[in-house]
Design brief:
Pfam families: PhzC-PhzF. This is Epimerase. Keywords: Isomerase. The protein has an 8-stranded mixed β-barrel. The chain has about 300 residues and is an alpha+beta fold. Helix 3 (about 155-160) runs antiparallel to helix 5. It is built from 6 helices and 17 strands. It has 2 domains: about 15-140 and about 295-300, Roll (Diaminopimelate Epimerase, Chain A, domain 1), CATH 3.10.310; about 145-290, Diaminopimelate Epimerase, Chain A, domain 1 (Roll), CATH 3.10.310.10.
């Protein structure tokens, strides 16, 4: 099997071919390693094992729906399924960005469009080849934002390491595929100093039906900020890049007149990543657009 970037041939057993994509690069480096492969007959346990075997947070299974009519103006319809070591997710932002890079590389086109089906939604994705990298974006549609019940999220904040005297005003529950808590932190230094108790955080999030907790620093005048996403309940104690939560934040800030954010993540893990997100207000609520740069690292064969 040929590696499209290095010119080498992947080695290993005769199992499925997996493309390793670094999604949401920052200045051409870092990014979240993501396993992308064609839909196979693997069972759930085998799908969950792939992220562990390859050292990625997620695995994305891609299937072009040959019998589906092309989506108007968006090319083929492609189904996506996302798995972590803990199970299947209805949606994954950086996994979708990685899948778009995979599809664009395979197509050979400079600009690739597809209608992406996952978690009951169909969204239009776009990937543009720039040298050896891909600039991918997609419109997630409406994002639900609500205020949490008074003090209901205090156990999450305690497990996150936010002191009781710091009430984190402005915390919101956002829903995009799954519900998550968005928590503003006073400074970027305080954000990087967070040391969550992951067992307690998973318990608190499970009790409230939350995917996890997305903590972020105040945006600069240009909309740049730092964020960290903690989701131990789904087997990802801290995510290198979380595009869906960044889209939720852009939707939240749109109510305050914000036009978009550039979110730096992964620094606490030594792997810098950047997500871009914007939102527009509609009658159905804020609608988010999210994107990032990706590069294909290599292709491997699973035994």
């Amino acid at each position: 099997m040929h590696d499209p970037l290095s010119g080498t041939t992947a080695t290993g057993g005769a199992g499925p071919s997996v493309t390793l994509v670094h999604a949401c690069l920052r200045d051409g480096a870092g990014g979240s390693p993501t396993a992308v492969l064609e839909e196979t007959g693997l069972g759930e346990a085998e799908r969950r094992r792939i992220p562990t075997v390859l050292g990625t947070s997620h695995a994305v299974f891609v299937s072009v729906e040959a019998d589906a009519p092309a989506h108007p103006g968006a090319g083929p319809v492609v189904s996506l399924r996302f798995f972590t070591a803990a199970g299947e997710l209805p949606a994954c932002g950086h996994g979708t960005i990685a899948a778009m890079a995979f599809l664009a590389e395979r197509s050979g086109q400079v600009e690739y469009h597809a209608a992406l089906r996952s978690g009951g939604r169909v969204v239009v994705g776009r990937a543009v080849r720039t040298g050896g990298q891909f600039n991918s974006s997609f419109d997630w549609g409406p994002v639900g934002i609500e205020e949490p019940e008074p003090d209901a999220h205090r156990p999450v904040l305690d497990a996150l390491g936010v002191p009781p005297e710091m009430p984190a005003p402005g915390a919101r529950v956002a829903e995009l595929g799954r519900r998550r808590l968005l928590v503003p932190v006073a400074t970027q230094h305080a954000l990087q100093a967070l040391t969550p108790d992951f067992d307690r955080l998973a318990e608190a999030c499970d009790r409230l039906g939350l995917l996890g907790c997305y903590a972020y620093s105040p945006p600069s005048a240009t909309g740049r900020l730092a964020a960290r996403m903690f989701a131990p309940s789904i087997g990802v104690p801290e995510d290198i890049a979380n595009a869906n939560s960044s889209a939720c934040l852009a939707a939240l800030l749109a109510d305050d007149g914000g036009t978009g954010v550039t979110v730096d993540m992964g620094d606490a893990l030594g792997t810098p990543a950047t997500v871009t997100a914007s939102a527009r207000l509609t009658e159905a609520g804020p609608v988010a657009l999210v994107g990032g740069m990706s590069a294909i690292e290599r292709v491997v064969s699973l035994p």
